[in-house]
Amino acid sequence: MARVDASEYRTSTGLVPVAVVLDNVRSKNNIGSIFRTSDAMGVAKIYLCGITAIPPDRDIHKTALGAEDSVPWVECSDTNQALDYLQGAGYRLYAVELTHNSLKLGSDRIATDKPIALIFGNEIEGVQESVLERCDAFLEIPQYGSKHSLNVSCAAAIAIWEITKQMRQ
After folding, report:
1. Residue 41 lies in a domain
2. What is the end-to-end Cα distance of the chain in Å, rounded?
3. What is the three-state SS of the chain?
4. Residue 142 in domain
5. What is the pLDDT of residues 44-55, one digit of tens each?
6. How many domains are there within the chain?
7. pLDDT tens for residues 2-39?
8. Are 37 and 109 in contact (CB under 8 A)?
């Protein structure tokens, strides 16, 4: 996708049918970073749910660098409200969460025949249990060190890159 201004982004034909759902993400810097990654990868929309802060916000802008003006976003008081809409619109729901049966990003092929919603959880608690119960599958970022978690904005960057890459193939 060629560089476009914020207004052109929203009507670009280069966007991929991926929605990013932020489930009670606390850090405004993480939110801004996820906006910036979403813009870079051509994500269609972001859903800001629960306690997730919304633009305009100085701290979001500090890391988003204007991407909060290009990537369309919706505020939802509850994550399940966003999932109701997305499921009704035919999206597959994928939580980026380490589970016993998760698909491994980078090695497992993800079904891309329908639009995809990538769900990212709170920095401490992860994705809510009620949200996990609604997911079609879970995505895992393989990790090889002593820690088995990533900052949510780092995890989002990896997952968004991989999913948008697979959707474009």
Report:
1. yes
2. 14
3. CCCCCHHHHCCCCCCEEEEEEEECCCCHHHHHHHHHHHHHHCEEEEEEECCCCCCCCHHHHHHHCCHHHHCCEEEECCHHHHHHHHHHCCCEEEEECCCCCCEECCCCCCCCCCCEEEEECECCCECCHHHHCCCCEEEECCCCCCCCCCCHHHHHHHHHHHHHHHHHC
4. yes
5. 999 999 999 999
6. 1
7. 678 888 998 888 899 999 999 999 999 999 999 999 99
8. no
Return the CATH number at 145: 3.40.1280.10
The one-letter amino acid code at 55 reads: P
Quote the tokens at residue 49.
Answer: 């749910």
The answer to whether residues 93 and 119 touch, using CB atoms and an 8 Å cutoff, is yes
| Separation of alpha carbons 169 and 165, rounded Å | 7
Nearest C-alpha neighbor of 123 from the set 28, 20, 58: 28
The answer to the question of residue 91 being in a domain is yes
Is residue 1 a part of any domain in this protein? no
For 132, the domain range is 6-168
